[in-house]
Amino acid sequence: MPINRSRIGGIVNPTMRAISTRLGVAARPVSLRIAGGAFYARTKINWPPDPAVITLSEESLNDRPVLAHELTHCLVPTRSLFLAEGFATLIGAEFRGDCSDFFFDCTDVDDAVRAYRPQLPPLREMAAETPDSRFYFDVARSHMLDVRLAYVAAASFVRWWMTQTPDLASRVADKDCAPAPVLMDTVFKQPVGKIEDRWLSSLARPAGAGMPC
């Protein structure tokens, strides 16, 4: 379909700059393709990861949080689904201003984690990315509560991890980055259970505060 490159650049470029600043990573070349038909958004990372290919429908191109989610995959290329979806879901939710993309009536991923804490996927299981896990990151099953929780929990954890490791995004984007469990062990030098306790403790609400969503 005909592409107005000036209009697309006016949408994509400022969005990429905002994400680059937020995560402290350099911009990367991106190949953008516009598809006809219904809502569609997909990113294909090439290895080595330049340039990534984003395919968007016209509708999704005009949905800036969706575009931001896909651009984040390009700016933080990683083979780890846990980290890839953690960063992308976080940025998408921050652009959206809520968690409605994953059907949570919450204003923030941390609020969703607080509200559903008893049902959260274990950090170890999320990071292991086992395909037969009910918490496996799979957009085709994103209507299921377990999968939705995996996305928002990964986003919440990644945001907390960035407070502990400010250059996390650039480390993850390095082509030689270790898998998520190994990287956590290298950075924290603590058992995964202890790391999980630290993350969840950081989300504790003040006494008397109501449920966020």
What does it look like?
The structure is a single chain. The protein is mainly α and 213 residues long. It folds into two domains: 1-77, Zincin-like (2-Layer Sandwich), CATH 3.30.2010; 79-213, no CATH class. The protein contains ten helices and three strands. It has helices at 5-23, 58-61, 64-75, 81-96, 109-115, 123-128, 145-164, 168-173, 180-188, 192-201; strands at residues 30-35, 41-44, 52-57. It has a three-stranded mixed sheet. The longest helix is centred in the C-terminal third of the chain and has 20 residues, at 145-164. The N and C termini lie far apart (41 Å). The model has no long low-confidence stretch (mean pLDDT 89).
Q: Can you give me a brief rundown of this structure?
A:
The chain is mostly helical and 213 residues long.
Beta strands, count: 3
Radius of gyration, in angstroms, nearest whole number = 17 Å
What is the global morphology? Answer: globular
Q: Helical region count?
A: 10
Span between termini: 41 Å
| Class by alpha and beta content | mainly alpha
Q: Could you report the average pLDDT, rounded to the nearest whole number?
A: 89
Give, in order, the helices and strands.
HEEEHHHHHHHHH
How much of the sequence is in beta strands? Answer: 5-15%
The helical percent reads 40-55%
Sheet with most strands: strand arrangement: 1-3-2
How many separate domains? Answer: 2
Largest sheet: 3 strands, mixed
Low-confidence stretches: none
Descriptors:
Peptidase MA superfamily protein; Zincin-like; mainly alpha; 3-stranded mixed β-sheet; 3 strands; 213 residues
